[in-house]
Specification:
599 residues; alpha/beta; Rossmann fold
């Protein structure tokens, strides 16, 4: 038997198959599941064949037991040799279970694990494709719940379907067929189990679905709150609000506990009701077979055979019923996952222009921007030409629209009306993924990941030499800090750069921008976390960096933009003044007033 691991699945092809099912109206959970297993039907078919073979002891045992009882009950009509033959047959079918069961699990596991990896890969791929607006609407904790818990629930449902549901169906069909062949009258009793099972499921179906939906939503809420709590710990401790956070999470946990308790109780009543129903049916069946044997209609040993098959059918139907809560949970998780995979708010770059080089000339043509849920325009009648290689700074009070301008340049936002042109081409017609390769962004809130300083500086880049890295370190004024660290540039920064100071994190973010040698640079308060000495060195490095490159700067400290080619003063989404530092001071307008406030 081949014990090699299954070949890696393509999350792109997996997402395409599943999304095709997800975007079709009125799709059932079964149809979604079939989309999940597309490409794995061969493994499933082979596993079913091995299941039938490995289950032979279950099918043969009632027959052999009945034969042995009948041989012992009527020794004059049978030889001892018949007893040994039945014994040998039983031993043979039992021993074959070891290799066939291993083969069954092997092929089944290939299919299930492939789907699990493919589904998570498809979700990660989709999350990378979603627009920034979509990510603003989705809490990180809820996304983690969908990627982890919901995929796990779908995997659990798949396992239950393959390990319990489908085998139970085969057991019912085979047991019913063997009984029908032996005694058609007795098989009528088997048919009675079907309406009993359906009746029990119909009684509890709505309550099970509702309890699973409520529990799933409460899990997502709890995950979101815990994620927020972890991020807020420094603020919480700084203000002595630990108990407030504990009480807030405790409230969420109590709600989750209540939803979970109600779900468990519904499932408990469901399981107990199905068990009692089938036990009553089995007792009636036993009475009927005993009556047939008493009247001589069947041999005494056949009571064991019919009871064995009937017990198999009841056990299989009970398994079908008991797996229903898991199916309901998996179905609800599929609905949760499709909320992400069906989203159409993505950056679609298919067929768009790929820029091989970028000069960095920008034109804002009467740009207006209004968010769907907002009452006022964020930007109004913004008209601005930025020459290639020019350094333009944007200043103004908070909420004036400065960072929104940068988001338009990056392509995170699209104008409600008007256009943003890059080198004469509308930004909406460009492949944004390729376009952004020419940009370097230093955001106001620096973002580092759990890795070394080197990893964070060279993030996403291939073929960067040691000289290039160290040059970026030097120009970002990181050399002295790196030299003091035990492992130098290979020192781990911790989660979100937690082992470093705010200024150190910001300088690493600046080095990340420097090493990219970009055509366009966007600096959103890039030096806000630096002390005066560090700011002086970084400003010198920035002056070298921006030579010949288009640069957009958002700044509150007006002294840091004295050397900008032009300064754009904004207020309430509009451009009020444009000019050099000295020109704007001389005008004694809005910029002059802002400068006076900082003196």
């Amino acid at each position: 038997m081949n014990r090699t691991a299954p070949a890696p699945i393509s999350s792109a092809s997996f997402e395409s198959a599943f999304q095709q099912a997800a975007t079709t109206e009125n799709r059932t959970a079964f149809q979604y599941l079939m989309a999940l297993y597309k490409g794995n039907f061969l493994n499933l078919t082979i596993s079913i064949v091995f299941f039938l073979v490995k289950s032979l002891p279950v099918y043969v045992l009632p027959i052999v037991t009945a034969n042995m009882i009948n041989i012992v009950a009527q020794p004059g009509q049978h030889s001892l040799r018949e007893l040994w033959i039945n014994f040998a047959v039983l031993i043979a079918v039992v021993l074959q279970n070891i290799p066939t069961h291993a083969a069954y699990v092997s092929f089944l596991s290939r299919a299930i694990r492939s789907v699990e990896a493919g589904l998570r890969g498809a979700m990660v791929r989709k999350l990378q494709q979603l627009s920034i607006n979509s990510h603003r609407e989705l809490a990180a904790g809820r996304l983690q719940s969908k990627v982890l818990r919901d995929v796990e629930a779908v995997e659990g449902m798949s396992k239950q379907l393959m390990l319990a549901f489908i085998p139970a169906i085969f057991n019912v069909v085979i047991a019913f067929g063997l009984t029908l062949y032996s005694n058609w009258l007795f098989s009528i009793f088997y048919v009675l189990t079907v309406p009993a099972a359906i009746g029990v499921m119909q009684m509890f179906k709505r309550r099970i679905r509702q309890s699973n939906r409520e529990f799933r939503k409460e899990i997502e809420t709890m995950s979101s709150h815990v994620s927020e709590m972890v991020e807020m710990i420094p603020v919480t401790k700084a203000h002595g609000l630990e108990q407030v956070e504990i009480d807030r999470i405790d409230t969420t946990l109590r709600r989750l506990q209540g939803k979970g308790y109600r779900m468990d109780l519904v499932e408990a009543y469901f399981g107990a009701s199905s068990w009692v129903t089938f036990q009553i049916v089995q007792v009636v069946c036993l009475l009927f077979t005993a009556y047939l044997a008493y009247t001589g209609s069947i041999p005494v040993g056949n009571i064991v055979m019919y009871q064995g098959y009937f017990g198999m059918i009841l056990g299989s139907i009970t398994a079908l019923i008991n797996v229903y809560p898991m199916i309901a949970k998996g179905t609800e998780s599929i609905s949760s996952i499709t909320e992400i995979l069906r989203s159409t708010d993505i950056e679609d770059n298919a067929g768009k222009l790929k820029l091989t080089r970028l000069s960095g000339e920008y034109r804002f043509e009467d740009v207006q921007l209004k968010f769907p849920d907002g009452d006022q325009h964020v930007l109004e009648e913004v008209a601005l030409d930025v020459r290639a290689g020019e350094c333009v700074a944007f200043v103004g009070e908070s909420g004036a629209g400065k960072s929104t301008i940068l988001n338009l340049v990056i392509g995170f936002l699209n104008p409600t009306s008007g256009r943003v042109l890059v080198d004469g081409v509308p930004l909406s017609e460009l492949d944004l993924s390729e376009y952004r390769r020419h940009l370097a962004v230093v955001p106001q809130t620096n973002i580092l990941f759990s890795g070394s300083i080197r990893d964070n500086i060279t993030y996403g880049l291939q073929g960067i030499t040691e000289e290039q890295v160290m040059e970026a370190v030097e120009r970002a004024h990181l050399s002295e800090m790196v030299s003091r660290l035990p492992r130098g540039i290979d020192t781990m920064v911790g989660e979100h750069g937690g082992k470093l100071s705010g200024g150190q994190r910001q300088r690493i973010a600046i080095a990340r921008a420097l090493v990219r040698d970009p055509s366009v640079i966007l600096l959103d308060e890039a030096t806000s976390a630096l002390d005066n000495a560090s700011e002086h060195h970084v400003q010198q490095a920035m002056q070298q960096l921006i030579q010949g490159r288009t640069t957009f700067i958002v700044a509150h400290r007006l002294s840091t933009i004295r050397h900008a080619d032009r300064i754009v003063v904004m207020k309430r989404g509009r451009i009020l003044e444009v000019g050099t530092f000295d020109e704007l001071i001389a005008c004694k307008g809005e910029f002059y007033n802002l400068k006076q406030l900082q003196m």
